[in-house]
Amino acid sequence: GQNIDQPTEMTATEGAIVQINCTYQTSGFNGLFWYQQHAGEAPTFLSYNVLDGLEEKGRFSSFLSRSKGYSYLLLKELQMKDSASYLCAVTDSNYQLIWGAGTKLIIKP
Amino acid sequence: IAGITQAPTSQILAAGRRMTLRCTQDMRHNAMYWYRQDLGLGLRLIHYSNTAGTTGKGEVPDGYSVSRANTDDFPLTLASAVPSQTSVYFCASGAGDTGELFFGEGSRLTVL
A42 and B104: CB-CB below 8 Å? Predict the structure, then answer.
């Protein structure tokens, strides 16, 4: 079966750095997405990786290793507004999007 | 304001009732999707449409139906609601196979 694994919950301190990991086993691979979802709101797009390596976008970076079936989202200079769930999703060989359950990130002052 | 609109935002209904969740987008995206989101589970695809006039079944289609008469609208119907359909429903649209998805604000449905 297809599976996306990410930690259920993480806690970090304001101003610090946090890395949220995602591992996947899917039938084929056509890209990996990270979305942010604040409580009670809709998911919003953060990043997209289709080739190995690091994609940097401001305070957020996303890394992909296709051979290891692994990605991480790196958040720097954490702010209280970064408290949210972070969803990892993979597009499989049929271009269907497979979603992880999400990682709830709690930021403490 | 361009985007994707869902209605209603919240609804409580009795088991056995028929319910239609509405979804409209004005971004001219070909692909549209309906997901449900339950605590502890990832977004699960109910139905999708790659273009107007076509629909397909997702991971959890039973008890739901959709139609895509035009590009903008993609309603989701529960023919006879059951308590297990209590969930938050998100409609989304996208430009293509590898493009990002744009989500509506969600419809919180409670079936008693």
Answer: yes
Beta bridge partners of B11: B109
pLDDT tens-digit readout, B24-63: 999 999 999 999 999 888 899 999 999 999 999 999 999 9
pLDDT higher than 90, residue A42? yes
Mean pLDDT of chain A: 95
- For residue B99, the model assigns a pLDDT of 72
Of A31, A48, A99, the CB nearest to B42: A99
Q: Which of A43, A48, A95 sits opposite B97 (nearest CB)?
A: A95
In 10 A of CB B81, how many CB atoms?
21
Task: Inspect the interface and report whether the beta carbons of B40 and A101 lie closer than 8 Å.
Answer: yes
Using CA atoms, how far residue B14 sits from A90, B19, B68, B90, B107, in Å, is: 36, 10, 27, 21, 16
